[in-house]
Amino acid sequence: MSTTKEMKTATASTMQSAYHPFDQLTGDEIIQVAAITRQAKPTIDFVFNTITLKEPKKDIMLSYLGWDTSKPRITNVEREALVIALEKKTMKCYEGLVSLSSNTLKTWKYIPDVQPILTMDEMFDVEELVIKDEKVRQECLELGITDMSQVFSDPWAIARHLSHPGREKRMMQALMYMRTCEDDNQYAHPLDFVPIIDLGRMEVVSIERIRPRDSKFTRPTIPTQNHNFLPEFVGEENYRKDVKPLIIQQPQGVSFTVKGSEIDWQKWNMRISMNYREGLVIHNVSYQDGAEKRPLFYRISLSEMVVPYADPSAPHYRKHAFDVGEYGLGLCTNSLALGCDCLGSIYYFDANFNDHEGKPFHVPSAVCLHEEDYGILMKHTDYRNGRAHTIRSRRLVVSQIVTVANYDYGLYYYFYQDGTFEYEVKATGELNTHVLAEDETTGGFGTIVAPQINAQYHQHFFTMRIDPMIDGQKNSVQQVDTYTLDYPTGHPKNLTGNGFTSKYTTLKDTKEGQSEANYATSRFWKIVNQDRTHPYAKTPVGWKINSGHTAPFYARHDSLVAERAGFAKKTLWVTPYDEDQMFAGGFYCNQSGGDDTVEVWANRNKQNIEQEDIVLWYTFGITHLPRVEDFPIMPVEYCGFTMKPCNFFIANPALDVPPSNIKVNRSVLANADKKDDCCSNKL
Predict the structure, then answer these.
(1) 4-111 is classed in which CATH architecture?
(2) Is the N or C terminus of the chain more exposed, i.e. has fewer CB atoms within 10 Å?
(3) Where does the record place the Copper amine oxidase N2-terminal domain (predicted)?
């Protein structure tokens, strides 16, 4: 993560009126929170794990935002921060609630048997510790490595270690690699041992060797062939010479407006925020439908994700990364580069997070906002007279990119002119690799992408937390299945056998609200407001949600990873709104046992979800059986989901999008002289 340290002097909270209640904490506020906490707890020697905005309660915000008109509108909201701190000697975890409005520590409590998120400070400390450890040095000597500056590690969460069960100790594991020179691709040189680190003692407590499974060798050699992709290794002379510039321009400026963290684009309105864990969050989404501003979603975020690996042997069974709950997408966010990560006319938002001392670090250009052409939105040609009517599609893109060790994820929120919302993940970066002995096989759990380099099978699951308010706070979910008529061909009700129909099932409680994708019935779900009926369709107004990327969860449902990642077992969970249920894998996900997950909440007791304030937990993902073509760096793999208005508007809401023409977009014929192009001459 590229960051710029920001050290400021704490200021009084006189600027709070300038902040919207959803705005992330500023650098000054982070310093202020740390000072208040230290002053209130001078006897505890702790480090700041997390300092983040404590979002106001939903009922307060619904009034503040103007959606709840049942009582006088709230115009002043207390600004609060959540503090998570670790006592240095004991690694005991404390939670504090700080009021920035009154400069007080309102609450402080010890939270037993938990381990909070792993921080960048800890990862850097572990990397430094590992290469200085004598046991690690001895392992490297046996492998022929004498220069420890060539040795690198990726610190990983330990999941649940059989020799270190529970959460009393704060633990990590380090996956080991070597580089032959600076900026060499370390994943081309994996090592065969894993140090286990006690963060409380800051000590390597043991080392695990990864034994070859079907080899005459007791230990593999290090693959020394380089596999690089950076420009200085590829060489400018080897780049393609037939790639000409593709320039995206908006000569009259952008079509969106930004005020603080509020975004207006055509008929869409929303707010964004950044936090250490979910990263980019979308708040208070509405759509202007004629004279009516219609509420759609209170809050949308990537709540959790898990990447379970397929190899059941040690230590690979512990490789199931919860990149949201264990590392934090905010903490792992990139500082984006103009002209590389985002093209065209770009608006950037920055982000602020904290280090262990309670000082802010600033990530410039953490969120990218821009518009993209997206091909044809709609078109019809009258075959009788040849008249064609074409409307090109444009979408608003709000995005961030995160790097979590070897993997990079582009996370994209798309808003379209026809009311469609889409979320897309672009997975790229480098494969997590494991060394093989010269005669060793993958055992059926991976792909040999280069000599002695095994890229193990794995999956990526992403669970979105969708808090809807479709035309109001009370919503329901319908499951929609399409099926062939039961009547055989020749039956009076299906004479020619072509009949099929659909079935709408309203999910009434948290037991029914657990559902899986079904390609046989083209299943999708519809979020509806049963208090408002569409005048034409005579059905509740709503929005449909579906995805073409709903992979089955291949780990057994009583496995270690399934216990911790129960959210991945189903495509959809629906639960009543609970302000303490924000993360599908639990708030304290690190080293968790799976006792605080959406699976547990949904099965604890049967709760009503029909025409209530509900939350949808929607899981999508991909199964990755690596290809040789994914090495040394992986082309993007795409996955995501869409939500579309479904009997919500009175007609196509994009009818008022202007038709496309070359005077506006300045298209030219590739095989014609520019002077013969009428548009280029006139504009």
Answers:
(1) Roll (3.10)
(2) C
(3) 20-111
